[in-house]
Amino acid sequence: MSSLIRWTPRRDLMSMSDAMDRLFDSAFVMPFGENFRTLVPSIDLVENAENYVVKAELPGFKPEDIDVHIEGNALVLRGKYDESKEEKGEYHVRERRQGNFERMLTLPTAVNSEKATAEFDQGVLTLTLPKHEAVMPKKIAIKATNVDKK
Questions:
Q1: Cα(117)–Cα(115) distance, rounded to whole angstroms?
Q2: For the chain, which residues make up each domain, given as ranges?
Q3: 83-111: per-residue pLDDT in tens?
Q4: Range 40-135 classified under CATH 3.40.50.300
Q5: In sequence order, what DSSP letters do the residues of 55-121 get, joined into one string?
Q6: Above pLDDT 70, what percent of the chain?
Q7: Cα–Cα distance between 11 and 149 in angstroms, integer?
């Protein structure tokens, strides 16, 4: 004996919705496909009590080829890869980074750019961006007055 499965259009529409979500996620999250990572550096942004710490992977770059600045609430990284030292000839495979990049990262709050520091070690740029004093949490002392003693 065979069993019948009742057709429910709602279930099929949900499947279509899921398919459309996957389509748009892959189209807009990674617009350049798998080679997206070679165009811009991978970045980590960590917040602690006093600072934001940004780490950017920039293998093959020299510190003088990287421009870092803050525009309002945004951190901007720019870099230029020197192609003059590349092998001359016909490439059969070329997957390594080439040309210029620019990466803008919106910071959650304002930072004090005057006290920011940058270190470059083994292809990793580490930026320490102190939070602006206006956004730092401040402890307010409570003064007791007219305390009834029973």
A1: 7
A2: 8-36, 40-135
A3: 666 677 888 887 766 678 889 999 998 89
A4: no
A5: EEE-TT--GGGEEEEEETTEEEEEEE--GGGSPPS--S---S--SEEEEEEE-SS-B-GGG-EEEEE
A6: 71
A7: 69
CA dist 107 and 68 (Å) reads: 14
> Look-up: residue for tokens 């949900």?
14
Q: Side by side, which strands form the sheet with 66-71?
A: 66-71, 74-80, 100-106
- Output the six-digit token pair for 24: 């748009």
Angle formed at CA 35 by CA 32 and CA 39, multiple of 5 degrees: 85
CA dist., res. 150 & res. 147, Å (int) = 10
pLDDT value, residue 116:
94
Among 34, 23, 47, 31, smallest CA distance to 105 is for: 47
pTM over 0.85, yes/no: no
Q: In the beta sheet, which residues pair with residue 79?
A: 66, 101
In terms of C-beta distances under 8 Å and separation of at least 24 residues, what long-range contacts does 97-102 make, across chains too? 97/38, 97/39, 97/59, 97/60, 101/39, 101/40, 101/41, 101/77, 102/40, 102/76, 102/77, 102/78
